[in-house]
Specification:
This protein is of the alpha+beta class and 298 residues long. The chain has nine helices and 17 strands. The chain is 24% helix and 34% strand. A hairpin with a 2-residue loop joins strand 5 and strand 6.
Length: 298
Amino acid sequence: MTTWLIGNPDAGDDGRGTSFWREALAAVDVTVDRVLEPADLDETSFAAGDRVLAAGGDGTVQRAAIVSADAGAVLAVLPSGTANDFARSLGLDDDPATACRAVADDRRVAVDLARVGERAFINVAHAGLGAEASRAVDDADKQWLGQFSYAGRLFDRWRAARGVRGVLVCDDREYRGRWLEIGLANGAFYGGGHRIPEAAPDDGRLEVYAVRAAHPARLAWIFARVRLFGPASIDAPELVHRRCRRLRLDTAVPMPVTADGEDFGETPLDIELDAGALQVVRGPGPGALSVPEPEEAA
């Protein structure tokens, strides 16, 4: 078994580069065999059973997750990004000692990957308004469902205000309309710790939130209700909330797509959830996993 450390050797939030993590891991008797930068992942071959330690935000973790799943390697997240939302789903906080101890304890769980052709995402994706907002603001401002608090800058764009006509298919159920935003959640947190109701990275389903165009005041009311009371609190034609394993979005005009904070191109979008595709190291916290630890299950 080879233990790989993926990260920027010179950078990282609060100085959490690869040198920092090597020292922290050594303190719990975990030896790093090889160090790589994220750009090297496409040229690297992992073996089944290898440990891949991803030191970075959700974008770095995303890339490490894909190659780990394809190789049968085990992924461990060392939170080093701005939000570290996927780490929260696994029961990890921002404390380096906690993350290193989780690696040493080697408690594993199988989680899902949302496959998009040869690409994939692990946490959340947006199409439409939220993706435009993610491209327009810095990492600290990226929010779930476009966060209507800053979507006002986009409503002055005629296409954003009217939405984009399209067809959304969740498994075998079809929805039509002028869509402003479609949010897709595999992980359970966004925007630095905000909880996505009912989402879990190991439950075999994507949480889908789709928002049709409407008057901004109406959308603000819907958004406030969802944030305060959850999606089950409202029955409105402007909001579609579904759980599915396969999703297709076709639009008359291409909509921008982002996933895990990365540019993911434009619609049409085809997603299939690869349930249990990735072995990850879980942390000591409750996280958002649907499968409890063995001692909890007993």
